[in-house]
Amino acid sequence: MAHSLKINGRTHSVDTPDNVPLLWVLRDELSMTGTKYGCGVAACGACTVQIDGEAVRSCQVAVADVWGEVTTIEGVGTPDNVATIQQAWIDHQVAQCGYCQSGQIMQAAALLAENPAPSDQDIDDAMQGNLCRCGTYPRIRAAIHDAAQRMKEA
Ligand code: FES
Ligand code: FES
């Protein structure tokens, strides 16, 4: 069945069964491979995107159930136009293998949109479902604080 999806400001039409997870539509149908597959069961956060600004696990949302505009890591910034949060990630050298990091950034961006000055506890609470096998949690926390500060000053 045809589905019309608004993603990163553009409308895309895809022809897939209703129950195909958004994750696979992004990756396989639209070649947006910045969103990663980790577990497939909402346990790791690697597949996190935003729908209408809310961080969601794209492995758990069927394409037919997408309720709003999707933002993926490709919509946050580009190498030529790096977003504030991405610059903070770069400056703190957060990424190790990098596999979890697009999901981490999508979750963190949703947190900062809702809470522009999060405490350590707020960050830990918001990010607890985003796992990192490389253990970058202290740098993620520092980068989120830094991004919050930069956004405040902008
Ligand atoms: S792949 Fe979706 S939460 Fe792990
Ligand atoms: S940077 Fe390797 S899994 Fe997080």
Characterise the protein shown here:
This protein is α+β, with helices and mostly antiparallel strands and 154 residues long. It has helices at residues 22-29, 84-91, 101-114, 120-127, 137-153, and strands at 2-7, 10-15, 48-51, 54-57, 70-71. It has a three-stranded antiparallel β-sheet, with helices on one face. It has a two-stranded antiparallel sheet with strand order 1-2. α2 crosses α5 (137-153). The protein starts with a strand and ends with a helix. Bound molecules: FE2/S2 (inorganic) cluster (2 copies). One FE2/S2 (inorganic) cluster binds next to loops.
Brief rundown of the structure:
This protein is of the alpha+beta class. It is built from 5 helices and 5 strands. α2 crosses α5.
Q: What structural keywords apply?
A:
154 residues; alpha+beta; 3-stranded antiparallel sheet; two-stranded antiparallel sheet; 5 helices; globular; binds FE2/S2 (inorganic) cluster
Q: Count the DSSP helices.
A: 5
Series of secondary-structure elements, N-terminal to C-terminal: EEHEEEHHHH
Mean pLDDT: 97
Largest sheet data? 3 strands, antiparallel
Structural class comes to alpha+beta
Set down the secondary structure blueprint.
Blueprint: E1 2-7, E2 10-15, H1 22-29, E3 48-51, E4 54-57, E5 70-71, H2 84-91, H3 101-114, H4 120-127, H5 137-153
The structure holds FE2/S2 (inorganic) cluster (FES) (2 copies).
